[in-house]
């Protein structure tokens, strides 16, 4: 299950010399989408700093199905694939689709949490897990 589609606004700097979406832009757009969702549910960078934790990527992979051109209208949706060990690790999937709902790319990330004091992977506080899970599930509705 995926969240409602959110429109992606492509910038000139997102394009490669062929006027296609540059491969690394998919990763940047997905990362920004994740942070926007967390922020909208109160899980801001300020909260993370106060609690001494931050998300950390363990794996990131993108499968490209169709090229995205400069003038294409694109949506991105986020899906929760797996939660492991009471929220210690999350697998999320970003789907890039056009306005006709054709899949353009699929980006999968494995995320864990870093304790900023110890610089080691750690289990986030239960309220953090709840906020992340609720932010995704409420969007899926």
From TrEMBL:
Coiled-coil regions listed in the entry: none
Pfam families named in the record: 4HBT_2 (PF13279)
Organism: Pararcticibacter amylolyticus
GO MF, any single term: fatty acyl-CoA hydrolase activity
Protein name: Thioesterase
InterPro entries linked: 4-hydroxybenzoyl-CoA_TE (IPR050563), HotDog_dom_sf (IPR029069)
Stored PANTHER family: 4-HYDROXYBENZOYL-COA THIOESTERASE FAMILY MEMBER, LONG-CHAIN ACYL-COA THIOESTERASE FADM
SUPFAM superfamilies in the cross-refs: Thioesterase/thiol ester dehydrase-isomerase (SSF54637)
